[in-house]
Amino acid sequence: MSAPPPVWWDGQLVAESAALVPATSQGWLWGRGVFETLAVHRGQALALSRHLARLSSAAARLHLFPPPEDALRHAVAAVCAHAPDAPHRLRLTLAAAQAPGLSLAPDPGHLLIRLLPSPPATGPAILLTVPFRQNEFSPLSGIKSTSYAEHPLALHWATSRGATEALLLNTVGDLCEGSLSNLFLVRDHRLLTPSLSSGCLPGITRSLVLDLCPQLGIPCLEKALSPADLAAADALFLTNSVHGILPVASCNHRPLTAPCPLTAQLDAALRDLLDRLPDP
């Protein structure tokens, strides 16, 4: 078995086994950290500028200060140079170093950039609404924090009941997001998606879809959406940076067309965009 590709750890490429997090770091002790996950295609990280902007914004909330953008781009390119031909994803993690107690003293943090295999989606998603709620009032709402255990717990609840993705409502009972994805509804030949005020992540693929809609003449509205809107939808799809657009075949045991023509149109347009312009 070949060795895993090298990782970027605090300013240099090292073997994966050498990227050791100090046991006393705040990132380890209480999850003061943020991360981004990007698809890698032909050795290039997709939508890198959007991901770096989101990383910087999220890091600022936790008083973390990543390296300058040009240094981050250099580091990403160095890791991607070792990407195999098979689909992979790139994870950037910025976590706080050692500091006393629960201090939020400004911190450059530890930076880890790592390539991971990215198996293709096995087919359209099967979606179940979980009993847990996403807190739209949380100071971590809308960022990819390393305090992330709620998401795998929600996903486990759904997958243990035959689904492939979990759907979370927020504290007022409106639709929010999937555990690993953003949600879009198709109804009467238009798109609906929860607004960012729902507490959902400002997903990168979500933003690309919103940018594509006017170009394709597809009406799209960001708004508060209820479970009744979900039940009335003609079709659903999910978005994330690894799988792009993923149609939903079933939601809460209701069969759906997957993909519907509008979903297929958007999927083709997104694939074409990223093939022509990997960093739109």
Give a quick rundown of the structure.
The protein has 280 residues and is of the alpha+beta class. Helices cover 27% and strands 30% of the residues.
Description of the molecule:
The protein has 280 residues and is of the alpha+beta class. It folds into two domains: 7-117, D-amino Acid Aminotransferase, Chain A, domain 1 (2-Layer Sandwich), CATH 3.30.470; 125-276, D-amino Acid Aminotransferase, Chain A, domain 2. It contains seven helices and 15 strands. The strands form two sheets. Strands 7, 8, 9, 10, 11, 12, 13, 14 and 15 form a nine-stranded mixed sheet that branches. It has helices at residues 26-30, 48-61, 69-80, 150-159, 204-216, 227-232, 261-276; strands spanning 7-9, 12-14, 33-41, 44-45, 88-95, 110-117, 125-134, 165-170, 175-178, 182-187, 190-194, 220-223, 235-240, 244-251, 254-255. The longest helix has 16 residues, at 261-276. Helix 4 (150-159) links the parallel strand 7 and strand 8 (165-170).
Please, how many helices? 7
> And the CATH topology of the largest domain?
D-amino Acid Aminotransferase, Chain A, domain 2
| Helix residue percentage | 25-40%
Q: Say which CATH homologous superfamily of the largest domain is assigned.
A: D-amino Acid Aminotransferase, subunit A, domain 2
Which parts are unreliable, with pLDDT below 50 for 5 consecutive residues or more?
none
Which term fits the overall shape?
globular
Number of domains: 2
Q: CA-to-CA gap between the ends? A: 36 Å
- Describe the oligomeric state of these chains in a short phrase: single chain
**Rg over alpha carbons:** 19 Å
Largest sheet: 9 strands, mixed
Using the 3D structure, state the CATH architecture of the largest domain: Alpha-Beta Barrel
Structural class estimated from helices and strands:
alpha+beta
Structure summary, number of beta strands = 15
Q: What is the succession of H and E elements?
A: EEHEEHHEEEHEEEEHEHEEEH
